[in-house]
Amino acid sequence: MEFGINFFPVVDPASKGPAQYYEESLRLVEAAEAAGFAHVQTVEHYCSPYGGYSPDPVLFLTAAAMRTSRIRLITGAVIAAFEHPVKLASRLAVLDNLSRGRLDVGFGRGFLPREFELFGFSMDESRARFQEGIEACRRLWSETDVVWDGKFHSFGPVTLQPRPYSTPHPRVYVASASTPDSCAAAGREGYGVQVVPSVVSVDRLQEMVRRYRDAWAEAGHAEPAPRVQIKYTCYVADDRETAMTVADTWERNYIAMMAREVAALAEVRSADYPGYETFADKVKKYSLGKALADNKVLVGTPAEVTAQLETIARWFGPDISVSLQFNPGAMPEAQSRRSFDLFVRDVMPKFAETA
Prior knowledge:
Blueprint (H helix, E strand, L loop, with lengths): L1 E6 L10 H18 L3 E4 L14 H10 L5 E8 L5 H14 L4 E6 L4 H7 L6 H17 L3 E4 L4 E5 L12 E6 L3 H10 L2 E4 L6 H18 L8 E9 L3 H23 L16 H6 L3 H6 L4 E3 L1 H15 L4 E5 L7 H15 L8
Parallel strand pairs: 1-2, 1-11, 2-3, 3-4, 4-7, 7-8, 8-9, 9-10, 9-11
Antiparallel strand pairs: 5-6
Helix pairs in contact: 2-3, 3-5, 6-7, 11-12
Family: Belongs to the bacterial luciferase oxidoreductase family.
Organism: Amycolatopsis eburnea
Protein name: LLM class flavin-dependent oxidoreductase
């Protein structure tokens, strides 16, 4: 089992200013590299306390690249629908060069109605824009004199400058919220997959991972192993009572911020987002106790979190990459750092043989 860290800033300026948040996060990135974590990643969201401190994953990861030398940098994920592919591919190629090939690119479709309205795009086009954006970036990275005549963009012939450092291009991941078909498609294409257990049942997530691995194997890719990345928020403390108190505080904050942003989903009816109209209601019904019982969040002493991860490895396989959020945004730095330090000292060594 491989471990990385991720950042999803659920925070507003009244709780913590952006400059303070970025500096605290970058200090944690440096600590993660020193501790042997495999990757750091962050999200893309806009103009709200729900992720708004990360409107551009490339900028944050560039800063992370300048303060590290080994840890991989992952977009988790860039929203291809919101940018012209030449611009997106070019910015990512710069980061791949600055980091000497440490970049992995996760692409996502986006799911917040307000963000699609902000950029003037229809959610009914999100899947097609997502697929076109990935393929256009892939070709721009790996080919010259690219001519593109797609549904949403036409350009060329164009040869991207700079070329990516990685050959033929950075690793690609696909973010999938709840759809086994999306995971299977990623497997067929030879992409990695990024999933979040908090929004689906264990059975559903197991089906998604199984479909992904089956499709990968059937496609016969040269790379020997598929890449499954699962994201968890992690609260480790010296005693269970403290861990539960901290988790309750910051999970409540997360749900409150998220509920405001996803409320509009109750009105969404889109073939690209089947069933998403029920998502807002599911968020309102969130229970830390239920999430903990289902291992959707990691909470407890080092021994308890170790046991949770052992269960997760049985569910999804020991070869998964687990991406951990220690700082949900507004949490005091000392609190998140204590959780991180306990994880490094008492949990990570238990999984060293499967890393």
